[in-house]
Amino acid sequence: MRLNNLHIRNFRNYDELSLDFHKNVVIFMGENAQGKTNLLESIYALALTRSHRTNNEQELIQWEKEQAFIKGNVQKEYTKVPLELFLTKKGRKTKVNHMEQKKLSSYIGQLNVILFAPEDLSLVKGSPQGRRKFLDMEIGQIDPVYLYESAQYQKILKQRNQYLKQLAEHKQTDELYLDILSEQLIDHGSKVLFARQQFVKQLEYWANQLHQKISQSKEHLTIIYRSSIPGDHWADEQTVKETYAQEIEQVKGKERLRQVTLAGPHRDDMSFLVNEKDVQTFGSQGQQRTTALSVKLAEIDLIKEETGEYPVLLLDDVMSELDDSRQLHLLETIEGKIQTFLTTTTLKQVKDKMSVEPEIFYIRQGQLEGEDV
């Protein structure tokens, strides 16, 4: 899978820009705050219909403009797929092959991307919320059903939390309605839980291989899905559903007191163990970075295994955050098999280590200043 071209209009600091891509490695080069990351963000948004930097879509639309537009042609093994994303102040609209898509699940997955930015190095030591978001975004690309189930779960969770508050304030007394919400929560939540568990197993398989390579076989990486539902290795969805229902029944009294849902995927986390020690707590900064790098790069092979196509890789100034050894392993992993877009302020860290000639675009104040092909 590769992106052949990109056209953006009224997006961030770009009035209008069209780019064609001919090589497997594309570099956006320029000083800070010129718009390099905005280009990566536009590719990410084209793939996933949202930004990785903000939840407010209006921030993506240029000041005093009504809408932003992103278009690109995706080259797959047997076909070309034109994608279009319209961002307006009232919402977003997507098109595949010039036909509008009513369902998000019909659009996402047409272009698979993996973004690796400096903040991703905090995937290991960052917040559980960040790791849950990571799981949701990555599973959603390869499993459209997961997107639906996750969205439904969040919707029911919000309704259930609101109703728990109303019960506590004696504004409502209908226990039957709470039971109905609980059933719906368990139905959607069990599907989310099982999909996450299966994904983490696959992720561990690929990430451990990379981690051992980077550490020269000195370290073994284990990834564990930590759930608020007892048991982290369920045999099937039905087992998850039954266990989830038992747990909801167990915490019912506490939920009434605290006015919040206490069990489910919204409270879960992942743990990373290096040589059986929790790297989040006991690992060195180097081990934490190697773990984050292994996990992000593992997604490349995982997505290839699930979809039959390699994803597109977006590297946002990440080379400057890695030492020479990790830079080398990153470049060895991607060269020759995956289209890569990266941003940098200097070519020295990147070009000298590459065995292929990259395509370079120079960006200045939201405009293409020059091109070296």
TrEMBL record:
Entry keyword set: ATP-binding, Cytoplasm, DNA damage, DNA repair, DNA replication, DNA-binding, Nucleotide-binding, SOS response
Recorded GO MF terms: ATP binding; single-stranded DNA binding
Biological process annotations from GO: DNA replication; DNA synthesis involved in DNA repair; double-strand break repair; SOS response
One annotated Gene Ontology cellular component of this protein: cytoplasm
Annotated residues for binding of ATP: 30-37
Coiled coil region boundaries: none
UniProt xrefs under SUPFAM superfamilies: P-loop containing nucleoside triphosphate hydrolases (SSF52540)
PANTHER family registered for this protein in UniProt: DNA REPLICATION AND REPAIR PROTEIN RECF
Name this polypeptide is given: DNA replication and repair protein RecF
Organism the protein comes from: Tetragenococcus koreensis
This protein's encoding gene: recF
